[in-house]
């Protein structure tokens, strides 16, 4: 039978045959990322926006902000919230309209966890305008435009680039004539951390026999045994490992994946650099 | 007949494992450092007292209650049972998990860290009713338990695991995983492997195994690991050999190291290897508990059948 029929009827055998020959269905090797492209300010709305593309997976992130009263216990801290939407437009077979799907809730919670744990550091003290009375509350809205696997990495880079693109404007409270800016001296940057403190995620799909494919497509991750995401920071140290269940993984596979992830970080850093150098799209 | 009644009572009460004399020496030897005492007098690598009770809920197919120190988690398994047609899978069973906070738990009434504010986790009916603790952890636990069960043996059915957190004193996720696995065993579902979970926290530059609530809050990194040892020998002899497979790993907070210490994964004193040792110890505890219950059930069965010379004495492994 020909390849298209095999792919439809026996997807696991199809994938394992490809793996034996060392290639994937889109011609990559097991350790190649898809073409990554990050664009800052593709939209004029919001305080900052960015679009990240990993092959055909495209995610758009917009940062909007409101000025709120801070918590009493933490008068100088701002807030960062994350919301992810996977509408039917990105993959009609997978996502139905209506209430938030569990994949979207999972992604939102995952990115929120990265922000809270400083893997994607946001200097919440820099969001303070007037201690005790006014702080910024940022909302990162991520919308998936097309979904073809590896939502985690794509959503991360979209939100990271959107945060770097964010410029907090001056505000004028109604009861005074002076304009207030954020308390931080570097008021035009929200993500204060230098890039090497940010932990980049790299996702793998794991199969029987300890083989892994980096940056899996939808088809590959649907028929994989488990998925693994490793966070690597600028010094080449792993900052986090996420393996939400799935088949068991041996330690040697984990170490191989970690080494590969460290190597891939350079490539992703390069993409981020190009994005921030090119600046906003006119 | 009195013997039967007495044995029945003993089965119900005896699955609780007494204070476990876990060995911190092997892990201490790994690090070779002097470890300061913790708030409750434990060593850095010492687990809390663990109690296991199986079969406590009569209406569920399987149930278990696990206490790790003061953290109390109950898990109930229903299944394999009928599944909605749109959720049915031809090749296996559909596993769903609900991870809830019953209104009687301590966290429902006193929540200083706003753990209940995650979107999608509002109370089910009214303000003080049972509410979902974390949608994403439900999804993750579903994947985890789905990989442990031999799903292909129960096609087009559903298995539901309900986990309730009664008291939170740190290490909730690992306690929940242990409770769910024991409940699945109690329900008699066939499994590929029996996973044991443990948590490790990085607090003020030291690794602490099985952190309690104050330690978790102060921690700059928290790692929950679930592994399934492959070996069938007693686990205490295999701490140096990494024969366990990693099933589940979740890291909260990323600050697991300072400038000069080792990596997260590799290295002798790394958080992963420490957590793995703790998982091995917990696996041993779980195994002992299940063995005791099995032995008692066997003896009870023998008595029920009226076999000669049957009884409790001398049956335990």
Automatic annotation (TrEMBL), chain A:
GO BP terms in the entry:
exonucleolytic trimming to generate mature 3'-end of 5.8S rRNA from tricistronic rRNA transcript (SSU-rRNA, 5.8S rRNA, LSU-rRNA); nuclear mRNA surveillance; nuclear polyadenylation-dependent rRNA catabolic process; rRNA catabolic process; TRAMP-dependent tRNA surveillance pathway; U1 snRNA 3'-end processing; U4 snRNA 3'-end processing; U5 snRNA 3'-end processing
Give yes or no: UniProt keyword NAD: no
Example of a GO MF term? mRNA 3'-UTR AU-rich region binding
Q: Does the keyword Cytoplasm apply?
A: yes
Among Gene3D superfamilies, the record links this protein to: GHMP Kinase, N-terminal domain
A GO CC term attached to the entry? nuclear exosome (RNase complex)
Indicate the segments forming the Exoribonuclease phosphorolytic domain, all copies.
Answer: 32-169, 202-263
Instruction: State its location(s).
Output: Cytoplasm; Nucleus, Nucleolus
| Keywords, sorted A to Z | Cytoplasm, Exosome, Nucleus, RNA-binding, rRNA processing
Give the chief site where it resides.
cytoplasm
A Pfam family: RNase_PH_C
Give the protein family. Answer: Belongs to the RNase PH family.
| Name of the protein this chain belongs to | Ribosomal RNA-processing protein 43
Species in which this protein is naturally found: Compsopogon caeruleus
From TrEMBL, chain B:
Tell me which UniProt keywords the record has, alphabetically: Exosome, Nucleus, rRNA processing
Which Pfam family is one of this chain's hits? RNase_PH
Sections of the chain in a coiled coil: none
- One annotated GO molecular function: RNA binding
Localization (cell)? Nucleus
Give the Exoribonuclease phosphorolytic domain ranges. 46-190
Highest taxon of source: Eukaryota
* Listed GO CC annotations: cytoplasmic exosome (RNase complex); nuclear exosome (RNase complex); nucleolus
Q: Which GO terms describe its biological process?
A: nuclear mRNA surveillance; poly(A)-dependent snoRNA 3'-end processing; rRNA catabolic process; rRNA processing; U4 snRNA 3'-end processing
Q: PANTHER family from the xrefs?
A: EXOSOME COMPLEX COMPONENT, EXOSOME COMPLEX COMPONENT RRP46
**Family under the similarity heading:** Belongs to the RNase PH family.
**Protein's name according to its UniProt entry:** Exoribonuclease phosphorolytic domain-containing protein
Organism of provenance = Compsopogon caeruleus
């Amino acid at each position: 039978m020909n390849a298209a029929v095999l792919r439809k009827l026996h997807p696991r055998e199809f994938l394992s045959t490809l793996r034996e020959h060392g290639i994937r269905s889109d011609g990559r090797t097991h350790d190649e990322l898809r073409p990554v492209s990050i664009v800052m300010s593709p939209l004029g709305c919001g305080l900052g926006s960015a679009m990240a593309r990993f092959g055909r997976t495209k995610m758009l992130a917009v940062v909007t902000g409101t000025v709120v009263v801070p918590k009493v216990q933490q008068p100088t801290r701002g807030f960062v919230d994350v919301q992810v939407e996977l509408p039917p437009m990105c993959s009609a077979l997978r996502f139905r309209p209506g209430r938030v799907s569990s994949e979207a809730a999972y992604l939102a919670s995952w990115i929120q966890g990265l922000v809270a744990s400083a893997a994607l550091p946001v200097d919440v003290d820099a969001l303070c305008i007037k201690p005790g009375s006014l702080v910024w509350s940022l909302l990162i809205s991520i919308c998936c435009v097309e979904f073809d696997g590896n939502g985690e990495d794509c959503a991360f880079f979209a939100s990271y680039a959107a945060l770097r693109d964010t410029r907090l404007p001056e505000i004028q409270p109604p009861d005074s004539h002076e304009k207030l800016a954020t308390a931080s001296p570097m008021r035009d940057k929200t993500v204060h951390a230098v890039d090497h403190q940010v932990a980049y995620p790299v996702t793998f799909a794991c199969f029987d026999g300890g083989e892994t494919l980096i940056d899996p497509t939808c088809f590959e991750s649907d028929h994989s045994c488990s998925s693994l995401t490793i966070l690597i920071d600028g010094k080449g140290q792993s900052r986090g490992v996420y393996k939400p269940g799935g088949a068991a993984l041996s330690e040697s596979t984990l170490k191989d994946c970690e080494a590969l992830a460290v190597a891939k970080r350079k490539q992703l850093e390069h993409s981020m650099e190009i994005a921030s150098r090119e600046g906003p799209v006119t | 007949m009195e013997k039967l009644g007495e044995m029945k009572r003993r089965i119900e009460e005896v699955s609780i494992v007494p204070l476990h004399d876990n060995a911190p020496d092997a892990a201490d030897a790994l690090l070779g450092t002097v470890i300061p005492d913790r708030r409750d007098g434990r060593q850095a690598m010492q687990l809390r007292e663990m109690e296991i009770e199986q079969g406590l809920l009569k209406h569920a197919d399987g149930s278990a209650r696990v206490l790790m120190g003061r953290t109390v988690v109950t898990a109930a398994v229903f299944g394999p049972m009928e599944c909605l047609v749109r959720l049915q899978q031809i090749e296996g069973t559909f596993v769903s998990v609900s991870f809830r906070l019953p209104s009687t738990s301590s966290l429902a009434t006193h929540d200083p860290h706003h753990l209940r504010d995650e979107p999608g986790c509002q109370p089910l009916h009214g303000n003080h009713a049972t509410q979902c603790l974390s949608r994403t952890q439900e999804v993750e636990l579903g994947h985890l338990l789905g990989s442990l069960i031999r799903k292909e043996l129960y096609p087009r059915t559903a298995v539901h695991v309900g986990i309730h957190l009664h008291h939170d004193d740190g290490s909730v996720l690992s306690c929940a995983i242990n409770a769910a696995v024991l409940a699945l065993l109690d329900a008699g579902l066939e499994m590929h492997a029996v996973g044991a979970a443990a948590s490790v926290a990085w607090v003020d530059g030291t690794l602490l195994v099985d952190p309690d609530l104050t330690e978790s809050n102060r921690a700059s990194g928290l790692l929950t690991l679930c592994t399934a040892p492959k070996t069938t020998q007693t686990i205490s002899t295999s701490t140096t050999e990494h024969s366990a497979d990693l099933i589940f790993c979740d890291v909260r907070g990323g600050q697991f190291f300072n400038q000069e210490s080792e990596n997260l994964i590799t290295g002798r004193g790394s958080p992963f290897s420490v957590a793995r040792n703790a998982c091995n110890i917990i696996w041993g505890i779980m195994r002992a508990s299940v063995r005791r219950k099995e032995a008692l059930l066997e003896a009870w069965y023998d008595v029920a059948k009226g076999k000669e010379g049957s009884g409790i004495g001398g049956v335990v492994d």
